[in-house]
Every structure is written in structure tokens, then in C-alpha cells.
Specification:
Elements: H1 5-23, H2 32-48, H3 66-99, H4 105-131, H5 138-150, H6 155-173, E1 175-178, E2 181-183, E3 187-189, E4 192-194, H7 198-237, E5 245-246, H8 247-259, E6 268-276, H9 278-285, H10 287-304, E7 309-314, E8 317-323, H11 327-339, E9 348-355, H12 363-376, E10 385-387, H13 390-411, E11 415-424, E12 430-441, E13 445-447, H14 449-458, H15 462-483, E14 490-494, H16 496-501, H17 504-515, E15 522-527, H18 535-547, E16 551-557, H19 563-569, E17 574-577, H20 589-604, E18 608-612, H21 617-626, E19 630-632, H22 642-651
Parallel strand pairs: 5-7, 9-10, 12-14, 14-15, 15-16, 16-17, 17-18, 18-19
Antiparallel strand pairs: 1-2, 3-4, 6-8, 6-9, 7-8, 11-12, 11-19, 12-13
């Protein structure tokens, strides 16, 4: 103990600070195990100071001057004093942290500063003892190096600390003469003259300069890392454009707030806000001005919902978690600000509102429901907000069900092809069938196309359904051929997304080869609206369809804005005239004239015509006289499963034509 007590003491200090740093947690409550560990170490540090009574204090002698003895004894006492301070700081800190979950920041600094002073006092004590015994001052230099690298402050603070340490120890090594006078003197120890030689002084100063340089380098390295870390932390929390929270961080904070809610949960709402007509504003004013608007809107939002939680989700979409008090007034005021932003372009907001039902809800799902509600009033400028209700909930859950189960529907055969007859206008014999998708679901029963097709298109999943229908139709056609049943061509509907999300033409050709289907039995239908975007991709696909030998049909002709351009740019075999042209056909001369013109135009550019939506004999007779070659509609049959189609044919209700055209 006499010769190693200081080393055991220093080891105990290091252990205490190591545990303190490991278990330090400013935000969370201290666990019981960590509390016991830190409390034990802190108490041990305080109790260890009792060892000071067992220490042998240095006494003046022939080899040790009174000044040397005083310095060594002062350093020894200071080590134990600082040890007690560290232990007391740790014990006090953990008591407050564990019992009251409070942080006393000053205790953190007390523990660190006391640790620094212990290191320096330990280094001075050991090196001063060894120096006059003819040994080096390595312990002091090591401690200063350790402290200098551990506690890196700003450069001028580092210079001050290191300068004071080095100059102080250097002066201590000189013989004290009284007052402020220090003088380099020789000291005789055991008959040997001990002194600080000039070379040692130079090495001493060189080490000081080197250590200062190292500290500066470490400081700047840490500073750069801190700046990068701060920038990363900021980017992880903030939207770069508006300065609001980003959606990811908003979700974390909202989830925490929801978990802490008590009482009437419905008073708390999640909002999804969308800006009406922002795309037009971007197109006319430019993206730079659009960014300025979003920044301004972020300021409007923060003013309107001060004290609430809000963020930018993406594009012109923003989300808010707030209370219901004064909600309508705040939204109306926000809408007025947006409306007045531009004198020429009409702007506004539409907001979906979702009321919380419990403190276990997922904020992302809640926002998605609010977004679904907001979508219901998109482009309805007179309506600012709408609440998510039971009807929307049912539709929303069905929507989610469709998205989540499209793969199961394909895998388990829930996607079933229905067939609607197409007839020759002159004989009304069946010359083909359009293949239409139906979803026979085990939960919802039969889902109609208007329930699942828009959802699958929005989420870019429609190609999975279409591929399944193509294969089912080819398989049914193969079975009919093998069974010797009457066979008619089938027409398959292609979505615009089919050409983007898969190689639709190759998929079709592979299926035809797989089931051995003659290409004359497959007609490809492409809607007019599908041909308005990505001309190069679609034009190449249309050309490949024709080159491979498939008949190409234009569906819903006249339903869009660019019908004539489509006829000019693409070569179709058949034009399907949209059913809306038949509306009020019997009483509207204009409707009859338009149909006549379309049929004559198609004949002149070598395209055949088919009119869909035929429901009366009068319509059928008029179309036949006008030269339309094919008809389709409820007059000849609704979409039905293949078994029902075969049944009608076998009963003679439908006659299959031998004519091919």
C-alpha cells in the first residue's frame, strides 16, 4: 500500500469515470442495475480517501528540501481530495437521476474537471518524486498528453491549460528562493549533483509545442465531425426546402405523442393538406417560384398551427397533428392566405381530417386515412376540409385489401376472366369476345373492375392483374380448342402501365407460344388515353404488336382529347367507338351524324369499326346501315364466365360465325 496506493487510487478513478460515461443517458431514466453500479463506484471513491491516513508523507531531509516536501505532500493530498469530489459528484448525480429523473449538468462538469485535476496532480507527484532521483518526467508528460487529448477545448483554451501546466511544473522543478523568485540550482542527492540541464529544457518545450499542435489537430477534426454530425442530424429531422420537420421525424414524434394521450382521443386529429392547382402554378411560374411558395406555405402553416406538430410530407403535401379546438377557423384562414398568394392562378387547400380513436394508433396509417379523405375533395375549391368517416373507412379498408392481396388473387385464381360477345352487325353472329377481369374474393365476394382497377393503376400494380388475365384467357382458349368447342378470337385490354412495368408484348407472345394459340385469335386493345404519354415507348410497342401478327384495336375512341392525333400516329385495324356516342341516338340528329362521319373516316383510312354499348335494336339497325361492321353491348350479352358463354352457345342463344375479317 505504501508504494502502490496511488496507482490503485488512479485505477479506481478511471473505473468510476468509465462507468459514468458508459451509463450516462441524458434523456432516459437510469436503470436499477446501472444505478447500483455507479452508486457503488462513487461510494468506493469517497471511502478510498480514508487511505490518505495510511500514506507516508514526505519529510525534509538532506536530499529533500522543505519546498520539495511541501509540493509532494500538497500533490498527494490533492489527489485524494479530487477523488472524493469525483465520488461525491457521481453519487449525487445518480441519486437525482434515479429517484427524480433529473439531470444536474453542473455535476457532469465537476466530475470531469476533478478527473482532469487528479490526472495532473498524479503526474506531478510521481514525476517530481522520480525526477530528483535521476529518472525521467515521463509520468507527468503522459498525464498531460492524456488530459490534453481527452479534453480538447477551443485552441486558446488549450494553449492556456497546457501552458499553465507546463510552466507550473517547470517552475516547481526550479529551486524556490522566496517571494516570486525561482532560480535554477544544483541539488545534491546521495552525493550526486542533480540539475535541470539545458537540453532537458529544450526537450520539455518541444514536447509542449508538439502536444499543442496535436490538440489543435484533434480539435479541428472533432469540430468538423461535429459539424457533419449536426448537418446529418438536421437533415434527418428537417425538410431541406421549408425547414419544417420531415415526414419520418414527424411520424416518430407523433407516435410518441399519441402513446402519451389520455382522455378523449377524438379531440386529437391528424391532418393531410394538399394545395389545389399547385401543378398549374409550377408550370406557369416555374419551379423556383414554386419552391418559394412552399417555403411561404410552411410559414403560414407554422403560424396557423403554432404549438402543434406539423411537417412537410412531400411535394405540396403537408401533415399536422393538432387539437380540434378552432380547427375550422384555422383551416379557413390558411386557405384565405393561400388563395390570396397569386392574383392570376387560383390556389387553395384541401384537407383530410382523421380523429384518433385510441393511443395505440399508428400515425402513418392515420395520415394515410386523412390523405384518402382529402383525395375525395381534390379540385373542389369550395370545400376546404372533409372528415374521414365510416363510409370512407369501409372503402379505405377495401382499397388496402386490394393492394395487399393482388399477389394472393393471382396465386389462388381469384382473378377470373369474363367474356362479353362481339357480333357482326349484319348477321349478329358472334365474331369474338372481349376479355374482362372479375375478382372473385373469398372475403368481399365479386369485386367489379371499377373497384380494383383504379386502385391497382394508382399503385402501379395493374400489370400483375393483366398478366394473370392474359394467361387465363389463353388457357381457356386452349381448352376450348382441345375440347372441340366453337372458337372465336378474344380481345385483351392493355393498360398504359403494362408497357412501363413489364415487357407486355413479349409476355403476350410468350403466352401465345406456351398455349399454342394462333395469333389471329388474339386482338390487342389499347385505350385512347393510354397513348397520350411516352410516345416513343408506346409507338415501339404498337409496331412490335403489328409485326408479330396481332390485330391492334383502339378502345374508347372519342373519349379523350387527341383522338385524331392518335389515328394519325398509329396504325390500328379496328376502332372501337365509345358508347357515349350512342346516348340519345334516337332523338339526336347530331349524334347520328357524328357516328356516320367517324365510320366513313375510318373506312377511308382503312380501319374497321366496332361500336360498344349497344342496348337497343334501333341502335343496332342504325349502326349496321351506317357501315359499322361489329357491335358489342348488353343487347347481345353481358360479360359472363366461360361456362355461361358455352351454355348460351350450346342452347342456340348465340351463334358462332365462321367468318374471319
Amino acid at each position: 500500500m505504501k508504494y502502490t496506493s496511488k496507482y490503485w487510487l488512479f485505477l479506481l478513478i478511471g473505473l468510476g469515470l468509465m462507468l459514468f460515461c458508459m451509463f450516462y443517458d441524458r434523456d432516459g431514466k437510469l436503470s436499477k442495475g446501472r444505478f447500483i453500479a455507479l452508486f457503488t463506484v462513487g461510494t468506493a471513491c469517497m471511502l478510498y480517501t480514508a487511505v490518505l491516513g495510511l500514506e507516508s508523507f514526505t519529510k525534509p531531509s538532506d536530499s529533500i528540501t522543505p519546498v520539495m516536501a511541501s509540493i509532494m505532500n500538497a500533490m498527494l493530498v490533492s489527489v485524494y481530495v479530487f477523488l472524493f469530489v469525483i465520488g461525491a459528484a457521481i453519487v449525487t448525480y445518480v441519486l437525482f437521476k434515479y429517484l427524480k429523473n433529473k439531470n444536474i449538468v453542473v455535476l457532469e462538469h465537476v466530475a470531469i474537471i476533478a478527473f482532469t485535476l487528479v490526472c495532473l496532480a498524479f503526474g506531478i507527484f510521481v514525476s517530481y518524486s522520480d525526477f530528483w532521483g535521476g529518472k525521467e518526467i515521463i509520468c507527468f508528460l503522459t498525464m498531460v498528453l492524456y488530459v490534453g487529448c481527452l479534453l480538447i477545448y477551443r485552441p486558446y483554451v488549450t494553449i492556456l491549460i497546457l501552458g499553465a501546466c507546463f510552466m507550473g511544473f517547470y517552475k516547481i522543478l526550479l529551486t524556490y528562493q522566496g517571494g516570486l523568485t525561482f532560480q535554477k540550482q544544483d541539488i545534491v542527492i546521495s552525493g550526486v549533483v542533480q540539475k535541470i540541464i539545458s537540453g532537458d529544457s529544450v526537450n520539455y518545450i518541444t514536447f509542449f509545442i508538439s502536444l499543442s499542435t496535436i490538440c489543435f489537430a484533434i480539435y479541428h477534426g472533432r469540430l468538423n465531425e461535429a459539424r457533419k454530425s449536426k448537418a446529418l442530424e438536421k437533415s434527418a429531422k428537417e425538410d431541406q426546402l421549408t425547414g419544417l420537420y420531415n415526414y419520418s421525424y414527424f411520424s416518430e414524434l407523433a407516435e410518441e405523442r399519441i402513446r402519451n394521450l389520455t382522455g378523449d382521443f377524438a379531440e386529437n386529429v391528424l391532418l393531410f393538406l394538399d394545395v389545389h392547382n399547385f401543378k398549374a402554378f409550377n408550370d406557369q411560374r416555374g419551379f423556383e417560384e414554386g419552391d418559394r411558395f412552399l417555403i411561404t406555405f410552411g410559414k403560414y402553416l407554422s403560424d396557423a398551427f403554432r404549438g402543434s406538430l406539423f411537417a412537410r410530407q412531400a411535394d405540396d403535401h403537408f401533415v399536422v397533428m393538432t387539437k380540434t379546438d378552432g380547427l375550422t377557423d384555422r383551416l379557413n384562414a390558411l386557405n384565405d392566405l393561400v388563395h390570396d398568394y397569386d392574383d392570376e392562378i387560383l390556389l387553395g387547400i384541401n384537407c383530410g381530417v382523421y380523429h384518433l380513436n385510441s393511443n395505440r394508433e399508428d400515425p402513418r396509417m392515420s395520415i394515410d386515412r386523412a390523405r384518402y379523405a382529402a383525395h375525395m375533395i381534390k379540385n373542389r375549391f369550395q370545400t376546404v376540409c372533409i372528415e374521414y368517416d365510416k363510409t370512407m373507412s369501409e372503402a379505405y379498408h377495401k382499397r388496402l385489401y386490394i393492394i395487399n392481396n393482388i399477389d394472393n388473387a393471382v396465386k389462388y385464381g381469384w382473378i377470373v376472366p369474363f367474356y362479353q360477345p362481339v357480333v357482326w352487325s349484319d348477321t349478329e353472329e358472334v365474331c369474338g369476345c372481349e376479355v374482362l377481369a372479375r375478382w372473385m374474393d373469398p372475403v368481399y365476394g365479386q369485386l367489379l373492375p371499377n373497384e380494383f382497377i383504379p386502385v391497382l393503376e394508382e399503385y402501379r400494380l395493374i400489370h400483375k392483374l393483366d398478366k394473370a388475365i392474359f394467361e387465363a384467357a389463353c388457357r381457356d382458349l386452349r381448352e376450348a380448342i382441345d375440347a372441340g368447342r366453337p372458337v372465336v378470337p378474344i380481345s385483351l385490354n392493355f393498360s398504359r402501365l403494362d408497357f412501363e412495368l413489364m415487357d407486355a408484348v413479349t409476355e403476350l407472345d410468350d403466352l401465345a407460344a406456351k398455349y399454342g394459340i394462333d395469333k389471329e385469335l388474339i386482338h390487342v386493345e389499347v385505350t385512347e388515353s393510354a397513348l397520350t404519354d411516352n410516345f416513343t415507348l408506346l409507338n415501339n410497342a404498337m409496331n412490335r404488336i403489328k409485326e408479330l401478327g396481332y390485330s391492334l384495336w383502339l378502345d374508347d375512341f372519342g373519349s379523350g382529347y387527341s383522338s385524331l392525333n392518335v389515328l394519325k400516329d398509329y396504325q390500328f385495324d379496328v376502332i372501337k367507338i365509345d358508347m357515349r356516342f350512342l346516348s340519345n341516338l334516337e332523338s339526336s340528329e347530331k349524334a347520328r351524324t357524328l357516328i356516320d362521319c367517324i365510320i366513313n373516316m375510318a373506312n377511308r383510312i382503312n380501319m374497321l369499326t366496332l361500336t360498344e354499348g349497344v342496348e337497343t335494336k334501333v341502335q343496332a339497325e342504325f349502326l349496321n346501315k351506317s357501315g359499322c361492321t361489329r357491335l358489342q353491348g348488353y343487347l347481345f350479352g353481358r360479360p359472363i364466365p366461360k361456362e355461361a358463354l358455352y351454355d348460351r352457345i350450346s342452347k342456340g342463344e348465340l351463334t358462332v360465325s365462321d367468318r374471319r375479317l
